[in-house]
Amino acid sequence: SSHPFRPLMCFTLMFCVLSVTNVPPPHSTIRPGAPVPVNTDNPGVRKAARFGVYRYNNSSNDLFLFKESQIKKAMVQIVRGLKYMLHVEIKRTVCEKRDHSSLDSCHFQRKKNLQRMLTCYFEVWITPWTQKVHIPVAQCH
């Protein structure tokens, strides 16, 4: 189909996302527009950052899972849903990928030689009313 979204229901075997959130479409008075800054503590921003981390973990060769440690900057754009543009620091956790851990219960590495931090830029496009997530950009270095 020509629909711009592909459902990414399972980011890995470990991270199957059944539902993003049950938010109705943005009110019709809100017009699509340019990206605007949004608070990094915003629940939608935090959820989008986690989706970006899932995408990173799914494509990395690291033995360990990474988790967001700090959201440095967040923008959101209303465009057939919400498109988040996020600058996020992620750090290596003590959880190994093969353990199928929930990231919420994964602590950051304490061993100096295993600690690792990456700076990432994620674009996460969420259409809450269709419960679809698309992550066109996930760049970490």
UniProtKB/TrEMBL annotation:
InterPro entries hit by this protein: Cystatin-F (IPR042886), Cystatin_dom (IPR000010), Cystatin_sf (IPR046350)
SMART domains cross-referenced by the UniProt entry: CY (SM00043)
Keyword terms, alphabetized: Disulfide bond, Signal
GO molecular function annotations of the record: cysteine-type endopeptidase inhibitor activity
Gene3D superfamilies per record: 3.10.450.10
Keyword Signal (UniProt): yes
Domain called Cystatin: residue spans: 30-141
Top-rank taxon, per record: Eukaryota
CDD domains: CY
A GO CC term assigned to this protein in UniProt: Golgi apparatus
Pfam families reported in the protein's UniProt record: Cystatin
GO terms under biological process: immune response; negative regulation of microglial cell activation; positive regulation of myelination
Signal peptide per UniProt: 1-19
Family: Belongs to the cystatin family.
The name this protein goes by in its record: Egg-white cystatin
Species classification: Eukaryota, Metazoa, Chordata, Craniata, Vertebrata
Annotated gene: Cst7
